[in-house]
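Dear V.,

Thank you for sending over the compound details. I've combined the ligand you provided, zinc ion, with the protein sequence from our construct and run the structure prediction for the complex. I'm sharing the raw inputs here so there's no ambiguity about protonation or stereochemistry in the SMILES, which I know was a concern on your side last time.
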Amino acid sequence: MMDDMTHQYSIFDYAEPDYNDTLDEILRLSAERRLENNIQLVKCCDTEPRGKFRSCEEYWVECPSCGKKTKTHRKYYQAMQAWNRGESEE
Ligand SMILES: [Zn+2]
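Below is the predicted structure of the protein with zinc ion bound, written out as structure tokens.
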């Protein structure tokens, strides 16, 4: 099967959360949620990839069909962006 990573990059695949210089954890988290909601994960094997986490600082994205996955990242949006840029563990 062809691994179709031809993907129209979106600015959200590179964007940083819009923290507005706040140090408030709640506001920072909601900025991260907003960015995550704007990132459209690229399909793999015609399947929706899954976001996974092991702790609140270990997130990755994985294809349930072929098992391809990203490295773990400290933030979920970073794992989503890595996936969309075609970065996988191997
Ligand atoms: Zn796959």
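A first observation: The first helix runs from residue 25 to 38.

Warm regards,
I. M.
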